[in-house]
């Protein structure tokens, strides 16, 4: 944890300011082992392996704990980087562009392995803070610790230890995995200062009925409950179907007659969107869909209401890959 992060942190219990103490190991300006204590309520939070720890994992409800355990495993296994992440990320947060980040204080709700935190730091954010509940923070910290303007914290999105000083907050692929997605959205939005901006990307209910009907029961009863190490192997079979279909059918057909034929293929927009990825990334995507204990599929109407609830202005809500909703607005 870099000293300069302190000015944006606030006690998640009372909002008081935090003080750094008892640093027993450091590297450059990173405190690797130490403690943060609240000047007001005296709550204490450890810093271990360079990461401030605000989430008491042993006190989490069972569903949140299972989500954190499974995604923690996922992002400590699938640590690869991919050139295509930048375009994929921009697809999730459009109309935001790389120039938008320049000199902004940015907060990412649910940073996973830190691939977007890294991009945002590269794109010139003044500071970017990636927060995640799970052990994915270990991978995120390793991937970003060399960047002066990137910070990783372990925290629950419901209880973010952040002052209301954020210029832009975003959350990609996280809110729908919370017990209450709307509550996570409100919590993230509450950290954006007046006039700042917010982006959220969530699974849509529309066009995903086949998932909620056939895949979700299997995910809830079986694949999210088995050992992730076993799921790693089990998920190779559906990945093989997706991989062969995208490489041998979707990509070639989308190049024929301006995509006029491919348009009629099942789930064409989404499968085409992931068709450029290699085996490892497609395996990550399939695994990701099967490992989550909780996944909500959110109808457009409900998503629109979230933005009204925070009185956002200039709101843009768009249908992405014909299976999900991306929203952007001023808070
Ligand atoms: C599908 S991953 C997406 C990660 C990242 N946004 C990305 O696109 O690479 C969902 C992430 O949400 C995190 N998460 C789940 N519940 C959370 C919570 N209550 N607070 C913060 N993060 C949470 C998980 O640990 C996981 O890393
Ligand atoms: Zn406090």
Describe the fold and architecture.
This protein has 331 residues and is α/β, with parallel strands linked by helices. The chain is 37% helix and 23% strand. It has eleven helices and eleven strands. The protein has helices at 62-77, 85-93, 115-122, 136-144, 181-189, 209-223, 228-234, 236-254, 268-274, 279-291, 300-309; strands at 18-27, 30-38, 44-48, 51-52, 105-109, 127-132, 150-154, 166-172, 192-203, 313-320, 324-330. It has a seven-stranded mixed beta sheet, sandwiched between helices. A four-stranded antiparallel beta sheet has the order 1-2-3-4. A hairpin with a 2-residue loop joins strand 1 (18-27) and strand 2 (30-38). It is globular, with a radius of gyration of 20 Å. The model has no long low-confidence stretch (mean pLDDT 97). S-adenosylmethionine binds at residues 64, 67-68, 71, 75, 110-112, 115-116, 132-134, 136, 156-158, 172-174, 177-178, 288.
Task: Give a topology summary.
Elements: E1 18-27, E2 30-38, E3 44-48, E4 51-52, H1 62-77, H2 85-93, E5 105-109, H3 115-122, E6 127-132, H4 136-144, E7 150-154, E8 166-172, H5 181-189, E9 192-203, H6 209-223, H7 228-234, H8 236-254, H9 268-274, H10 279-291, H11 300-309, E10 313-320, E11 324-330
Parallel strand pairs: 5-6, 5-8, 6-7, 8-9
Antiparallel strand pairs: 1-2, 2-3, 3-4, 9-11, 10-11
Helix pairs in contact: 1-4, 1-10, 8-9, 8-10
This protein binds S-adenosylmethionine and zinc ion.
